[in-house]
Amino acid sequence: MKVKGLIDLQVNGFMGVDFSSDDLTSENFAQACRNIIATGVTAFLPTVITSHTDIYRQNLQIIAQVMHQPEFKGRLLGIHLEGPFISAQDGPRGAHQAQWTKMPDLAYLEQLMEWADGKVKLLTIAAELEGAHLLAQWAAQKQVAISLGHQLATEQDLDRLAQAGAKALTHLGNGVSAELPRHENPIWAGLANDNLTAMMITDGHHLPVSLIKSIIRVKGPHKCIVVSDSSPLAGMEPGKYETLGNKVLLEESGRLFIPDTGYLAGSSATMMQCMNYLASLKLVSTHELLMMGFENPLNLIALDAASVAQEQRLHFDENQARFYMKKDITS
To answer: What is the distance between the terminal CA atoms of the chain, rounded to a whole angstrom?
Structure first.
């Protein structure tokens, strides 16, 4: 069956191009976007992680300018700022650099929005930080979706941010400490909050099947979103690399991690690979898969299918439970 497409809300780079690097150019960013689209994703949010101010100034402007190019209309739907208003502590900040994290600062967020030409559609912040609710309130008024992640948030923190306008949880089950209190922790609190949609990385490495199943069963498919969290090393051969300010190892299995800490450093998978892994688990129906990979991401960032490029190559084989592209048909 032909499907409308796949929407990825978290793409950090591809095939060696890092959207948060000081060597990003209009040319290599545009080519990375073409390569990402060629993997089967219909539209996505380029993601800039916690960075130095100079990186934000340069890269947000580059991304915004490329978004204006006709070939990316309906393909680049906006920008995801993952940080800098996240936890600085080891564990919850993941592969983000501690020195570039910031406490919530409305003036700084306004500056980031200006450099991005108003194209920020999604902002990840940590709910426990002082002033986080004020950022959420302001962003909601600007039609920016707030997602909560890379945090040590309590149930009360999540409730406060949801009341302030937060809508989602960034890669629930990841971006937390390796060891947590067994009851009072951000994963349980996130699962229990009925107002927050759960984004999750279903690449076969970030979450065990039991947790994927639990998230879907608790939230319901209508409040779950699949993201790839593709790192700049997605699409690369296995080996040792340096990315996002860390020395990392990409294994044959696709697992990408920081050997010094054991923490994952983003995903090496594409959106289609994540969707196919989830489909292989047979936890949800075809209709529910398409909700989690197309409809729900658009709903979170307040867009509809008419905002997305029309897709002709993407299909789903219900017998084999897999998405695939018809290579002889161009979009």
So the answer is: 16
